[in-house]
UniProtKB/TrEMBL annotation, chains A, B:
Organism: Sesamum angolense
Record region (Disordered): 1-21
Name of the protein in its database record: Acetyltransferase NATA1-like
PANTHER family xrefs: DIAMINE N-ACETYLTRANSFERASE (PTHR10545), GH14572P-RELATED (PTHR10545:SF29)
Keyword Acyltransferase included in the entry's annotation: yes
Length: 235, 235
């Protein structure tokens, strides 16, 4: 038979937590078509990618060269040639915006902690409708490719990049999915990109998104002098 | 000491060989831009490629789908989108021809034996300037790609194919070199394509042409239902 239970200790004073401020830990995101005004940011993002991949020795891009090749005068419509989606982030909601070629994709993320962005000043958006709190966080560059077996175009993703302080929050997935959604909308046959074979985390991530990894194909590249040598010979 | 040698047999009567007829064993070749009129041949060539690669289960191309995607109304200029070079062969020289976008590349091959083409009838050229002896022998399909590190376009070769009876004569090399020469002429940064890792003969051939094989990259592909699933979600 159990001893009589001691009297319960006095209940602790209830701790009153402040109501969470929804906007404080909410990050609003937008994926939109990039324009020539975004070139300075795109240039910095590509350079950060080169640093991340330890390939700065191959980095030769200048803002002028990016402008001339990505946003030439009389540029063809988006999706028919080189196309850039830019990822923007803001602590307040984005205004509704219209673009005849692409309706920006909006999504809000609920985070435990606000993100400290040490490069906020350098990455303030140049969008005409952006306030000072809109920050560029990443990009994806893609262009049409073609499958002769399907007799259909597709998209090839050359680069996808999210700045370090915004990683591991599903933003890369959002960029990739925006390209896939556009391909599906246009009736295209496939979306392709490449991954380094030792990058097992990326491979796992891509497989979870429904991608197949083709183990047998290898990329062949003709560049530099070996390429220029073909200009003057008729083999 | 050797026995006296028997008298030599009478010398055989000299065999008089006919003078080789230069045109009889010369094959004239032309690489030119394909047009919508070439679609029936392009379709047959793609099908032959699928048979060669044992991938006929993936072959879905129809002439109508190829026409609509490769030669749409208001098609952009060659080299800015999907572009096809056609390889033609003839036992007599090609007439001079002009094209504002691409001057056909001509070369003559000297062969020990004439080539027997069992499909000559099916592959008579539809070129407006071609006589009945001009035969389609192969093609290469390519389109612009982009290097962010170089801030330059390049070309990606999706398919390169030479019909069986014309192989091992340097014609594949001529098609590849025509693309490389065009890239070099346009100041492009590189030409890329893929090869199966077990196809050691092709790898050796590409390396001899100056290409690097990139061992670490793997192709990721999102297609079919996995692609279409992205049309309706905002990940």
């Amino acid at each position: 038979m159990a001893a009589a239970a001691p009297p319960p200790p006095p209940a602790p004073a209830p701790i009153t937590l402040p109501e969470p401020t929804p906007s404080g830990h909410t990050l609003f995101t937008r994926i939109r078509l990039a324009t020539a005004e975004d070139v300075p940011h795109i240039h910095k993002l590509i350079h950060q990618m080169a640093v991340f991949e330890r390939l700065t020795d191959l980095f030769q891009a200048t803002p002028a060269a990016l402008s001339a090749t990505l946003f030439p005068p009389n540029a063809p419509p988006p999706f028919t040639s080189f196309t850039v989606f830019l990822l923007e982030l803001c602590t307040s909601p984005f205004p509704p915006s219209q673009n005849p070629h692409f309706t920006p994709r909006l999504k809000s993320l609920h985070l435990d902690l606000p993100i400290h962005d040490p490069e906020k000043e350098a990455f303030r958006s140049n969008a005409s409708d952006a306030n000072d709190d809109v920050i560029v966080g990443g990009f994806v560059l893609f262009f049409p490719n073609y499958s002769t077996f399907l007799a259909k175009p597709g998209f090839y993703i050359e680069d996808i990049f999210v700045r370090e302080c915004y990683r591991r929050k599903g933003l890369g997935k959002m960029l990739l999915s925006a390209v896939a959604a556009q391909a599906a909308k246009m009736g295209y046959g496939r979306v392709e990109w490449v991954v380094l074979d030792w990058n097992v985390n990326a491979i796992k991530f891509y497989e979870q998104m429904g991608a197949q990894i083709l183990p047998e194909w290898r990329i062949c590249r003709l560049t530099g002098e070996a390429l220029r040598a073909h200009a003057h010979v008729n083999l």
